[in-house]
Amino acid sequence: MADNLECEINNLHEDNIEYVRENLLDNYYSSKLALLFKVFGDDTRVRILLSLLNKELCVCDISSLLNMTHSAISHQLKVLRDMNLVKTRKDGKEVYYSLGDDHVEVILNIGIEHIMEEVNDEN
Amino acid sequence: MADNLECEINNLHEDNIEYVRENLLDNYYSSKLALLFKVFGDDTRVRILLSLLNKELCVCDISSLLNMTHSAISHQLKVLRDMNLVKTRKDGKEVYYSLGDDHVEVILNIGIEHIMEEVNDEN
DNA sequence: CCTACATATGAACAACTATTCATATATTAT
DNA sequence: ATAATATATGAATAGTTGTTCATATGTAGG
């Protein structure tokens, strides 16, 4: 399958490879991890999460804030819910959304730190 | 464009909306942020980054470790490089990759924390 | 210079995803 | 019960993305 055979001297870093292989998260968890970040990896969802950093909001509020349809927002909120990134509180007809747990805020903030450095590097 | 007009009583949380709107990161930065997480949001790239947590590795090593073609790995390494998530050290014909900065490790670890809680919730 | 090897990259195709549109569910008020 | 509003969801489509294949670049040695 893979053209690893091209590596003629494949003993070169075999000890490193073996070490890393033993310590590497198995495929199940790395897939889960990728899936988590994939959920963060969308403009709309990021803006929703950023909106919820400060206050809980209902679908209607978020739609208005991001100038998008209720349907689009609701679809994305489902994705966020499924990943436990937001939680809900129902009050009458309205559903209020807020961040799921502290990880969400931390991940967003470190991400912001990273891109801020990147933006500075560009200058 | 958006069917926000459905919100008849759209003064309902207008103060909240206004507050969040003022504190919300502008579109330029939230797009950058989403782009950053999008790069984390792929199985192959996550496994590459996890591999590099412990040791620097060359393309050949990573290919062997993940059992994928050099080409596939190299393409993904470019994506990671462009986002400053990995850095390179050239030694002869080989190019050694390592994590770009501390943010990468932190983001991975918090991600792992989150999915571990999630996995526990499932039981 | 020529060969071999390590890595990089362009193009194309298959697989995936976000939004839209239509419709359904749930809650409240009349 | 009916109407009105808020939210949710299924299907379809347009746009995006990861891998493969072919090829190019860069480096070391003969």
Looking at the overall shape, the CATH architecture of chain A is: Orthogonal Bundle
Strand arrangement within the widest β-sheet of chain A reads 1-3-2
Percent of residues in helices of chain A: 55-70%
User: How many domains, in number, for the residues of chain A?
Assistant: 1
Mean model confidence by pLDDT of chain A: 89
The chain pair forming the largest interface, with residue counts per chain, is:
A-B, 69 and 69 residues
CATH T-level topology of chain A: Arc Repressor Mutant, subunit A
Strand content of chain A: 5-15%
Query: Class of chain A in CATH?
Result: Mainly Alpha
Q: What's the total count of β strands of chain A?
A: 3
Oligomer: homodimer
Full CATH superfamily name of chain A? Winged helix-like DNA-binding domain superfamily/Winged helix DNA-binding domain
SS content category of chain A: mainly alpha
Q: Distance N terminus to C terminus of chain A?
A: 43 Å
Major beta-sheet overview of chain A: 3 strands, antiparallel
